Amino acid sequence: MIGLGLSRGFAVTLKNFLRPAVTEQYPDRHVGLIGAAKAAGMNPFQFLVKKPTDSLKAIAGLATVPVAVKQSPRFRGNEFTFFEDRCTACASCAKYCPLGIIEIVSVPGKIDAQEGESYKLEVFDIDIGRCMFCGLCVEACPYDALHMGTGFERSKYVRDELIITKEELFDAPKRPSSFYRPQFEENGFDPFKETIDDHHDAGRHERPSDEDLKRKWVDER
Amino acid sequence: MAIKTQPVTVNLGPQHPSTHGVFRMRVMFDGEEIVDVEPVFGYLHRGSEKLAEERTYTQIVTLTDRMDYVSSMLNNQAYILAVEKLAGIEPSPRGVWLRMIASELQRIASHLVATGFLLQDLGALGTPLIYAMRERENILDLFEMLCGARITNSYLRPGGVFMDAPAEFWPALDRGLGDILNTVDELETYLSGNEIVFSRTKGTAVLPKELLINASITGPMLRASGVDWDLRHRAPYDYYDRVSFDRILHTASDNYARYWVRVQETRESVKIIRQCIEQIEPGDVRPSFDEVPRLIRPPVGDAYAAIEGSKGELGFYLVSDGSIAPYRMHVRASSLINLTLLRDMLIGGQFGDLFVTFGSVDLNMGEVDR
Ligand code: SF4
Ligand code: SF4
What SS3 class is residue B205? Predict the structure, then answer.
């Protein structure tokens, strides 16, 4: 019968009309009086008395609160987390990058009686304006010094500001993503709530066992 | 009195929302009828095949993501299979199961996009597209859990995948599969019986079977004409010989058949994923770096591997000269080859059917131009 298919279609649309909305509100979400009071840390009556203008705004539907976007802990955000103390300036990351956008300059550092000669990192620049956040550099880092970050709000007006330098990496809050770092997932680390301040806590993803090291460096030589 | 009309040439695209990317057509109309079509493409050419010649085998995975950007997992899989064949790498079983799950999810996402945009071209502005996109969004969330990216995944590595799925992935996948089936059921209820869809798509742009075979068209377009050709069944790669699924065939070979085959195939993909979840075994997801180092140096030679992509046979041909980068890479891009019959589909048709027909081919300009 003509029209039956159409009406069935309208029934589906009606069903979907009554479903909760799936739209992600970002960066702000409109709230009513109760939501605005909650964001300010008061109950609605206190809020009405103490902040009458804000309450009026909230009742008119103009108040907004910022929202955090739902992200997975493995999210490869457009920044990096870097533990300078761990980096040996081996430049594996720079060699592994498909675009060659990591610049490393190292100079011989002090000579340690036990560990031998060490290298000092002079320049460590990542040009994230050209980066595609593939994570291959993180995968290549043998000492777990470089991690993907989880943030993504890094827009700038000038291209040059997109180059992340060593100092910037050093000062940034350390919220590494668990991309290619299974140890974070095992420890239940949540980059959206906590930071890793000490590089010792970051762990190693493929620490070879002593037997493996002996086989590789003693027996096979 | 007969009205005398003069043919007019109209330029469509490249910046046209219905051309699925940057595609340009020079179309000659006689009134409402299409007299001649000349496709012009190459606006999205990025030289991926040339770029691959100076990257190592692992780095090229990131280039393949960007070819067909609505089915990057499938591109990854085709490329990795070619590398494994070239270098003689034995993949890890768990890695293979994981990449089968990932690529079947990607096939569902790609078919949903194709269906949604086809209906958008039909004039169902917004609604079906949004329903399809909502479901695709869930799949992209699953990819984010797996590999940390939504579109440019780069999840696969020679010998498997780079990391095992997190614990929260499996319950989410289970939920997601139920949602996908619900959405497909909804799609069918409101579209497959819809009179407007019938009148617009049935019997338009019919392609004979022989022509499709001669033009080496593959994928849903070929199966919509009744030719039983699915590489997952004909030449099983990975572990497709250990799962069972029905091949979806239609005989009409018109726009409706192509749409119908895609919708039904999503159900089969769900079936395959369910079987993968049952059969997946614990273990490593990729061989150790002693077996497959980061810098692979395959022996001198060449290899071709093909998979059943979302749009047809997707193949990668690699030539190795023994160094860390391929000497030559060539992609058998299914979108480009499926485009070759555009003239046969459009000429003689009506102006209103132009974009519907174009949408039913399910093109991706990223793959056509590479
Ligand atoms: S994420 Fe990829 S493109 Fe970016 S610096 Fe690392 S290796 Fe290079
Ligand atoms: S690979 Fe790791 S240790 Fe080596 S230079 Fe890069 S960040 Fe430092």
Answer: coil
